[in-house]
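Here is one chain, start to finish.
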Amino acid sequence: MPSRGSQSATGNRARATGESWRTNFRFYDDSRRCVLSNKLKQLSQKIQTQLAPYQQKWNALQARERTLLTTLAVLLLVCGFWLGIWQPIHNGIASAQQRLDNERTLATYVEQRVAQIVALRANSQNSGSTTVTDSALSGEINRIANELEMVITRIQTQERSRVLVVDEVPFETVLAYIERLSSAGVIIESVDVSSANEPGRVRVRKLQVRAAG
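Its structure:
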């Protein structure tokens, strides 16, 4: 069992070690701050040295010349803000509004054409034309799409209806497809299209149809 004297000596050495560590840390921290302060001073002096000729030229100018240069600098800042920030934002908003107006016009036109096709189909039904049954609906959908070389991206079943999605297709092809479906006895329940990147092409986000029989 260690004596009290040895325990006291051990404790003194531990305290001395701790004090030495704290002293060294403070010295290192003070040294690092001193180095950083010197670097900042050197950088400040370097900047002042580089700006000194311009400062002398500025001081040599008359008050009227300083006012003109200050006004010019403000105008340049305003122009930079307008051309670099405000104008692109304004153009983006105008472009988005134009696309929205185009899609609304397109949707209205499609609705009108679909209404005409449905009306023609109703007249043909009254004259005794054939209708597609539910079991033959999927086959008729794919057959007409293949004849028009239109690729259907997805077909989903909702009760008796089928919901079709097409990525990009010529607008006239969509109208021809709807007309062919209606002529075959398929009921057009709803159509949702949007403009594609290329002129004259659209995306069919939703074309919901069902069999009449």
